[in-house]
Amino acid sequence: IGRLAVQGIQPVPYVFGTPAWLERKDQIPPTSNEALDAWKDWLGAAVTRYGVGGDYWDTFALTNPGVEPRPLRIWEIWNEINSPNFWAPKPDPGAYAKLLRLSDKTLKRVDPESQTMIAGMFGTPQADKALTAFDYLERLYEKPGVAEASDLVGTHPYGPRVSDVERQMAMTRKVMKKGGAGRDGTWVTEIGWGSDPNVRSDLSKNPAKQGALLRKTFKMMIARRDRWNLGGVLWYTWRDADDPTALVCGWCGSAGLVDSDLDSKPAWVEFTKLTGGSP
Question: For labeling, which of 135, 230, 240, 263 is most exposed (least CB within 10 Å)?
Fold first, then answer.
C-alpha cells in the first residue's frame, strides 16, 4: 500500500477468500456465523488501518514526508460472484447479499465516506452452474437492502469485439436502473485480451490487435463515461505470466501490457498514449 502511494497510484482493492482455518478452499465464501464474524473483524481492521484517517497513514507520513497518502476508499466485495470458480460450490445471490450488507455496514461504521462495490462479474462465464452477470445482478437486486448496501457495481465485460464490451456495459446499466440503483456508479475492474494467437479463445488476438482493441475500448469508455457514471477502467493485466500453462484461463497468460521479460508490447504503447508517460 505504501509503495503504491509513493508512486502516486490509488489502489482499488477487492476483498476475496476464506482462510483455511474456516473452509477447505478460499473460493468457498463465508456463510457460517463464525466465518461471517471473522470476515467482519478482518474487514473492520483493514479499513481502520488503511482507510481515510487510518492508523497506517500516521506512520507513512513519518517515513515519507511530503508524499500524499492514498487511503483505500473503494472496497470491492469478492470477485466474479456469478461463477463457481470464485463462489463455490455455485453462485448464490442470497448469500452474497448477506455478505454485501454486512460488509457495507462494517465499512461505513469506520469510514462513512467509504464506497462499497458489488464484485465485478464476467458477463458470460462458461463454467458449469455459472450465471450471466445480468441474470445474477437482477436476482441480487431482488434481495432486501442490496441497492442501499452498495455504492458501485464492478464489471468484467470481456468480449471478442468492442461492440460486445459496449453491449455488456449497457445491459449492466439497464439492470441497475431496474433494481433501483440507477444513480450508482460503475467501474470496469477487469477488461482485456490476450496477444497469443496460438491460444484457442475468442479473447486471444495477436499483439497488434490487442493494442488496437485497448485503444478503441478505452476511447469508447471515455466517450460514454457520463452515460454510465463510469469511475474507472482497469486493464487485465500489466504483465504476461511466466508460465501461462499454470493459469486456468488460457488467454490470460498473454493479457499483459508488457511481456514476461517486461518488454513493451503494442498494448503498452497504446496505453501510455492514452494515460501519459513514456512507453
Answer: 263
pLDDT, tens digit, for every residue of 93-151?
Answer: 999 999 999 999 999 999 999 999 999 999 988 889 999 999 999 999 999 999 999 99
Residues shown for the chain: 279
Distance of CA 247 to the CA centre of its chain: 18
Note the pLDDT tens digit of each residue in 168-220: 999 999 999 999 999 999 999 999 999 999 999 999 999 999 999 999 999 99
